[in-house]
Design a protein that fits this description.
Length: 345
């Protein structure tokens, strides 16, 4: 089977969507499924509003049609609701082609936080976007329930995993900082709620890894925090392994793959009891969820690093890929339609 995934989020962006799609491709290949991407590569791009480091593609309908025909897909999946996702959706709807989608980002909450647009307006648009999909995939059971409560239908589960070979308790980066080290990794943007972490009265040191539009502002406001910039691959894993607690203050992430990456490094998680942390951590003994984030941070210091590693070992990208394949199998393009739209193999 060949699956074409349309995505506005792609390298060099560093986020959970890109990591998820890259891992999907690698693990689906082992299962005999070829995942290809219709990404911003090769299109003219412009900076995203309020995110100048992210480039949005400006595809035309003709370019989208040519790329889909060149891929000759058996199934089409739309991973994002950006310009590429919209164009591919329009292509499929006009030709009566089945497709699946995924709900990966709480855009209504993000937009409300940045532009004060009512969440209900954005959710109305997103319901319309996903309504034509055969299956809309969500990363957690609580997100499925939340979306169902907001009027979404035809929902399916597509969980996330972690590369436990890359993210492990060793090697450990040499951080010459007072202990304990409380660490966050991710985009430094308003929706990540980093103020809630950086304003806490905690012992030791606070470390932030990542970049984003609020980096300079937060460095000025919190001069005692240590901002290390973007790290990748083995360097990121080694720095995560050097932390004592991973602090995840976001209240808008739909999952938070980085929580699993921290756990794979043997680092317990402190977070709010919201969608994402509730599903990753739940009632397990590898993290503390509390409406008082300081209480969660101090409580996480008492948890077993070995238990965190063992927990992560049970969350594989292989299982995630199998879920995705089952979901897209409900939206295979019939041979008659493949011939009609001109990309039958």
């Amino acid at each position: 089977m060949r699956v074409l995934v349309a995505t506005d989020a792609w390298h060099p962006q560093v986020n959970g969507v890109v990591r998820t799609l890259t891992s999907l491709r690698d693990n689906a290949r082992k299962l005999g499924v070829d995942v290809q991407f219709l990404s911003p590569e090769g299109f003219r791009t412009v900076p995203a509003p309020s995110y100048p480091e992210i480039r949005l593609a400006l595809p035309t309908g003709g370019e989208i049609a040519r790329r889909i025909a060149a891929s000759c897909p058996d199934a089409i999946h739309i991973a994002t609701e950006g310009p590429i996702g919209l164009k591919v959706r329009s292509y499929c709807v006009r030709r009566g082609l089945p497709f699946t989608t995924s709900y990966s980002t709480k855009f209504p909450e993000y937009i409300s936080a940045r532009f004060l647009v009512p969440e209900s307006w954005s959710y109305s648009l997103l319901r319309r976007f996903h309504a034509a999909s055969r299956v809309t995939m969500a990363s957690t059971t609580s997100l499925v329930r939340e979306l169902r409560g907001r009027g979404f239908r035809k929902l399916g589960l597509w969980t996330r995993g972690v590369d436990t070979g890359l993210f492990s308790p060793t090697p450990v980066a040499a951080l010459d900082l007072p202990r304990p080290i409380f660490m966050n990794v991710g985009r430094i943007a308003v929706e990540k709620n980093l103020d809630a972490f950086l304003s806490l009265d905690l012992p030791g040191s606070k470390v932030v890894i990542g970049d984003g539009p609020r980096k300079d502002e937060l460095r000025r406001r919190f001069p005692d925090a240590h901002f290390l910039g973007c790290l990748h691959g083995e360097r990121l894993a080694a720095h995560l392994a050097a932390a004592d607690v991973f602090v995840f203050p976001s209240k808008t992430d739909t999952y938070g793959v980085v929580q699993l990456e921290a756990l794979a490094c043997g680092v317990p998680v402190a977070a709010f009891p919201v969608t994402g942390p509730r599903d990753v951590i739940g009632n397990s003994s590898v993290g503390v969820l509390d409406d008082d984030l300081r209480t969660a941070c101090l409580g996480a210091l008492q948890l077993s690093r070995g238990a965190c590693r063992d927990f992560a070992l049970g969350r594989s990208w292989d299982a995630s890929a199998r879920q995705f394949i089952r979901n897209v199998s409900h939206a295979l393009i019939p041979e008659s339609q493949r011939r009609h739209v001109g990309f039958a193999g």
